[in-house]
Amino acid sequence: MSSLKLSFETGRKKLGQPVPDSNFESELNRGAPQTMQWYVPLMWLFQYFPVKAISVPLLKQTLTDSLESLAFNFSLSTSSSIGTTLIDAEYKANVPTSGARAKTCRWLDAAHCLALGSSHRPNRFDGLFMYNCVHARVMKSDQIVLPPEDLPKKWYNIVPDIPGGIPPPKEPGDGESRMDALKRRMVGECLKQEMSGSSWIDIPEEVRDLYIHAGRPRPLYRARRLEQRLGLKKARIYYKREDLSPTGSHKVNTALAQAYYAMKEGKMTLVTETGAGQWGTALSYAASMLGLKTVVFWVRAVYDWKPERKFLMQMYGSRVYASPSDQTTFGKSLLTKDPEHPGSLGIAVSEGLEYTDLAADRVYCLGSVLNHVLIHQSIIGLESIEQFKSVNDSPDVVIGCLGGGSNFGGVALPFLGEVLRKKRKCEFLAAQSEAAPNLVKGEYRYDFGDTAGHTPLMMMYTLGHETSMTPIKSDGLRYHAAAPIISALRSQGYVRAVAYPTDELLVFEAAKLFLETEGWLIAGESAHAVRAAIDEARRAEQKGEEKCILANISGHGFLDIDAYKTKVKVD
Ligand SMILES: Cc1ncc(COP(=O)(O)O)c(C=O)c1O
Questions:
Q1: For the chain, what percentages of helix, strand and coil (3-state, to nearest 5) are there?
Q2: Which residue of 85, 191, 401, 454 could cross-link 529, Cys pair, CB 3.0 to 4.6 Å?
Q3: What domains are there in the chain, each with its CATH number?
Q4: Global pTM?
């Protein structure tokens, strides 16, 4: 915005015109919800044309005609010095948001060439012209949007780009084959994607429609108010809005895909685990959209304090059990030892897998860790790449909170793939809790994905599948291991990690600051990413380094108000 404003003001001053004293930025932010209001101040400097080649009335007429029925007001003036013509144009158009960019660029491009006459040969100022048009559109009110027709058509799978690939899963060497059990329990298409050697995987049209119905593409925001509060001069912070999904988190991205494939394969009931409750709600929603049922095993420590989320899942038609539960042999065995057992994500996975075996029309859906989940979540980073291009910026560091790794992977891996393909430079930072600092303190070794050992062994940074973890409010981060893909990239030095204390005061303080400045109430898990973004920005500022930071907002906090009440003070 400010560079645009600068070019506008410079242009006016050069023409000897007064610079309007109205608040340019607040003018830009006005506009009806369904339309975008653009002011495009332009300064064209044509060094290579005789003055008479540019006809101002023709330009004015052409722009008005080209923009058809759009409201269009502008003023033009020229001034000339030897060999140089300067045109300062200011115009404003109300343009429907959807699909507007391509259309308007075409109009303006045509108008530009027409105005310059047939003798015109494209030169570098054309680039400047087009850049200004696009720039003006996307910088509107710090919200960077993609129209639905720009929703990516393929998911990205980073595995083929990782040097040496990732170590394959292994059988533990005792009991039944865990691979065979997975084939029986999992959605067939998801298992295929789990082993896929393709970098790009088609998103079925029906899933794209469901994504659009669920509000994708999601906006990217520049956190200008947070930057101002932090007094940043060198660092820029952007955030991606996965909290805007129907159930309030990124989990919907894979839930819709898994439910769709399960439906195509004739399954009736989706069985799953959930920690924070976000994944259970997302799958309940996706199942409901596709006419299926869901059974959710929910970590008891969280189940007990989130009755609203439980009710939401039930409204979608799901059955929800506190885990450990009396529905499985494993759950019963734990309850016998400790009737108040708080549970863990690993235990809930074990229960879900066991429960799936009890009927043929059930299928197990996992909300994190596995390759296919990270593939579906790549939609987050793929959209973000396009959004950054449209504002001509690029992140130096991408940050996500990390429990099992699905939102971090989703936002980071498309960027990281470009790093591996030598197309960009960027760092990646996972924000964790000291309750489960798997990347920070874990060992890189083979381990089970669940507590009872029903899954194959996977090569991961792990704290041990039987480790007990301190309960925290941001329970989605309380998982013993990080996804095999993220772990492999960490072992090769591409991923940094930080863990915040289990009292969660630092992260909820960041969440409150984010609420006060940007206005959004975010999940405790996402607050870890925001804390890390603030810390990175402050460090860059102290060192006097330019830094562009992208943080993923993995979820909203509307059903986490009780957590806020215990962590945040208000007057
Ligand atoms: C809002 C939110 N963010 C982040 C996570 C962490 O999961 P993952 O690391 O798979 O993204 C969860 C998990 O439940 C969550 O609910």
A1: 45, 20, 35
A2: 401
A3: 2-138 (3.30.70), 205-247+373-567 (3.40.50.1100)
A4: 0.79
